[in-house]
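Section handout 9: paired folding examples.
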Amino acid sequence: MTQLGLGVYNLADAARLIRIDRRSIKRWMYGYTHSHRNGEEVEQRHAAPLWSPQYTSDELGERVIGFHDLLELRVVRQFVDHGVPLQVVRRCLDTARELFGTDYPLTRRSFVTDGATIYVESIEAARTSGEIEDGHLLNLRSRQYAFKAIIKDSLYAGIEYEGGTARRWYPEPRTKAVVVDPALQFGQPIVEACGVPTVTLYTAFEAEQRDRARVARLFDVEPRHVDAAVRFECELLKAA
């Protein structure tokens, strides 16, 4: 059963919202099997998930994740996009969980300030364990800008916190027209001023030959609310 306030996103919706490949979500959230050469032999190894999703795989009949999973994945994507090995990302997560005492440490405000130290320690731990090669290690060390390029204010812009924990996310922080709030509409993006999901207004807009005034009348909202939904959904489509 869906728990109130967690939000619920199938993998396709999650990929669409945070602009990431669906296969990456599956690998990071549910683990994967890979080949590893050990001398003349090739072994099959299993990489564990980076963390346990808020929902079990069979809880809703399909693989779904929660709001905090969604936001943490945004940060993981930034690490990977900047060339950080997944072993170091995993170390960052483990260290941050222990330090902050939470299952979802990457989107805590404190990670922005303490994360640089966690990042360096994670590189050293991965080197000591032999998880990354010296050449890769040197590359990571030499990129002094790497962490600042990943963990920057813009990555957290639009996230609102309560007690240091992320509670809602405005994907367009400048306008704040659209909000992703796990306590509302199961966490689907809505136009905050009227509470209608953006995809609902966008679908109606397309079905009504893009007549924004008619859609506004049908849903008893203002035309600007339709505009906000259409703009948001179109941006997601462009990024797909």
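Moving on to protein 2 of 2.
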Amino acid sequence: MPVPHVIVLRAPGTNCDVETAHAFEHCGARATPVHLFRVLERPDILKDFQILCIPGGFSYGDDVGAGVIFGGQLRSRLGGALREFLQADKLVLGICNGFQVLMKSGILPAGAERWPATDGDPPDATLTWNDNGRYTARWVKLHTGDSRSVFLQGIGAIDLPIAHAEGKVVARNDDIVNEWRKRGQIALCYQHDDNPNGSTADIAGLADPTGRVLGLMPHPERNMYATQHPHWTRRPQDSDEGDGMKLFRNAVEYFG
């Protein structure tokens, strides 16, 4: 099977790049953490990779909003290179702060269809503060529904941890959410009675219409092994794998 090469794109304040790279490597990919500044210097470096992953953390300290500065740099300085990447048969994954970056840059929810958008176009959706007004870190139960996401194939229900303050998905209107449903873009949802941030339609992750771009607030790289789950001693021990493993394996096997 061909070995896909993953660029784990980090910026000042990113803090989940090492474990995210490990997750891809464990599933058979070659993962290389690369600083955003190196890509800004040479955008054509993206041609060397088949998967782009933006991991979690607090890029630029979330000083003007989570993912805003990082997303603005992608939009204003890497528009051409990223559009070419998005239009190719390649994958993009944004985890937590990475999801925020994909949303703030405008890559999600439309993917390559309307990216980069002109400055006058209003965004279809954003990620904003949790309803409780504070950073929240705990485990949640999720389901995938009818998602077209490459990353979530064969996954029905999944337990993952969250760790965020600005994870609430808010759409401009109900028509947008209905369109997401029709196009299979609602990739991941919180269990209805366990929505930790008040996200519209319990949305925890969004895909683009092709299914090749995924952004999610929970951290799959933090549940790669069964023993990482807080209730692991009370769960069936039929596998040493955690729920997050399949997501990374799906990405690698897409290129098989």
